[in-house]
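ok, trying the design again with the full structure, not the truncated one.
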């Protein structure tokens, strides 16, 4: 049985000064939030603040050259996702060469990088390793140096990566990195696939691909779909071997052509970025309509 989609009301519409915005992330700072957007085309980050009422500040753009990251192990190519930790660092994910890298925003310094290795799960590796593969599009930081990555399509699903020799810990309120916690890489600069959840059933019917993962800062984790123009909350806990299930389906307006970034702001607001090649608006802030849940 399909879900009754929740409705949205627009609070703000504007532009992130980056082409092809491919990811969003927030960290809370009192009554406001730091918001980071990542740009695919020119390998850049944009940083701003957003108030509880949805007022968006001026954007500051940071390029790979600003943090001396142009040649850091090939890490900064085709950025597809970003996730802030509680220590003011933003962790970025690349799709083409499957790298995770961290940047200290204030110090403008790279603080770590790791390669993602899927060979530990042959079923996943078969699709991930193809030359034309759709790989990581969304990122969620977990405790113990683990991460959850959204594989875009063919097939779409979720992958938990962590240091070799460790077991999968899954996704729950106990394993998602807390808002005030720092994330750090451990081991030898390689994170291996520990668990793989392919979308199936109703979730696959409603979400034809995955383009981002976002914590809502109240214990929930949300998935975003570009092709289906929707977001939905991941049912937790998600353990190795269990099925991916979602609830709280939200359909996005058709004016958002290619939603690739999702973030939750103070005051129950929801930010969505549109991966555009032109100079049109590519950033939207919504709140759930008072009509949601009625009927």
């Amino acid at each position: 049985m399909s879900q009754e989609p929740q409705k949205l009301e627009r609070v703000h519409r504007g532009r992130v000064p980056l082409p092809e915005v491919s990811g969003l992330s927030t960290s809370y700072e009192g009554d406001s939030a730091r918001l980071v957007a990542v740009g695919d085309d020119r390998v850049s980050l944009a940083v701003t603040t957003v108030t509880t009422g949805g007022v968006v500040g001026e954007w500051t753009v940071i390029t790979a050259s600003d943090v001396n990251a142009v040649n850091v192990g090939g890490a900064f190519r085709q950025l597809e996702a970003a996730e802030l930790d509680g220590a003011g660092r933003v962790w970025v994910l690349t799709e083409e060469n499957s790298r995770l890298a961290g940047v200290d925003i204030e110090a403008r310094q790279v603080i770590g990088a790791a390669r993602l290795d899927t060979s530990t799960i042959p079923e996943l590796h078969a699709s991930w390793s193809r030359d034309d593969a759709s790989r990581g599009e969304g990122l969620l930081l977990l405790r113990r140096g683990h991460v959850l990555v959204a594989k875009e399509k063919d097939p779409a699903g979720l992958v938990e990566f962590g240091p070799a020799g460790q077991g999968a810990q899954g996704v729950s309120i106990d394993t998602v990195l807390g808002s005030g916690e720092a994330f750090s890489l451990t081991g030898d600069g390689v994170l291996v696939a520990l668990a793989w959840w392919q979308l199936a059933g109703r979730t696959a019917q409603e979400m034809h691909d995955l383009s981002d993962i976002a914590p809502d800062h109240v214990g929930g984790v949300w998935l975003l779909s570009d092709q289906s123009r929707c977001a939905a909350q991941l049912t937790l806990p998600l353990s190795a071997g269990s099925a991916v299930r979602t609830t709280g389906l939200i359909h996005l307006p058709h004016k958002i052509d290619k939603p690739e970034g999702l973030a939750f702001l103070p005051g129950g607001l929801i930010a969505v970025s549109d991966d555009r090649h032109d100079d049109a608006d590519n950033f939207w802030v919504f709140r759930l309509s008072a009509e949601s849940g009625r009927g």
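Keeping the full-length input from now on. The chain has one domain: 8-288.
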